[in-house]
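Incident review: delayed structure delivery

Summary: a single-chain prediction request sat in the queue longer than the usual turnaround. Root cause was a stuck worker, restarted by the on-call engineer. No data loss occurred. The affected request and its eventual output are reproduced below so the record is complete for anyone auditing the incident later.

Affected input:
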Amino acid sequence: MSMALHPLSFERVVNAVEKVNERLHRAAAALEVADIPYGIAGDNAVALWVARVDETAVRNTRDVDVLLSRDDLQRATKALESVGFVYRHLAGIDLFVDGPQGKPREGIHLIFASEKVRPEEPVLNPAITEVEAGERFKVLSLPALVQIKLTAFRDKDRVHLRDLIDVGLVDASWETQLPAALWIRLKELLDHPEK
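Output delivered after worker restart:
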């Protein structure tokens, strides 16, 4: 496989981070103006929570995950399209790419509140009310974020959970806050942080 390599450049790295940040703020502002309840989820939510403790422990991401009510999808589509995003439904995922030529991996990925992403998941996604106000947008509360990460439990979710554990935001005291199926997953990470 042949690919064009750009020069090694931290400017390209910084530019990539700034593009994600701009998309996040543009999407959140459009949802705010339209008065649509939402919460920033996924990698960005983890980064925001981790940064509250230790900004040197923050990881970068390439996309933006947003928790919405499915009932608000039509209004959210109108709001996001008004600021340049284009709705797509690809491989069972609802997302917004940044313009007609936008790439899905750089998009706004939707997670629907109070639903399961996959039928085999042990619990529903959090309710749309489980958010906290940040400086310029709403983000999932820490319990809601931990619930989503434990429910999906993919490799990257386990990495994010380890980040939350490493900075002291999540520990064994969470046993009483979680459904049994999710506590088993968290305990596995707490007991075996190297895995």
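Verification: The helical segments are 10-33, 42-51, 73-81, 142-152, 155-166, 180-191.
Action items: add queue-age alerting; document worker restart procedure.
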